Amino acid sequence: MALFSSKTDTSSGAEMSFLQHLEELRWHLVRSALVIVGIAIAAFTFNDFVFDTVIFGPLQQDFFSYRALCSLGHKIGVGDVMCIVVKTPHLQTLSASEQFFNHMWIAFLCGIILGFPFVLWELWKFIRPALKDKELGPVKVFVVIASILFLIGVCFGYFLLFPMSYNFLVSYQVSSSGIVETNNTFDDYVSLISTMTLVSGIIFEMPVLVYFLTRMTLLTPAFMRKYRKHAMIVILIAAAIITPSPDVTSQMVVALPMYFLYEISIFVSAWTLKKHNIEP
Question: What rounded mean pLDDT belongs to the chain?
Answer without folding.
Answer: 84
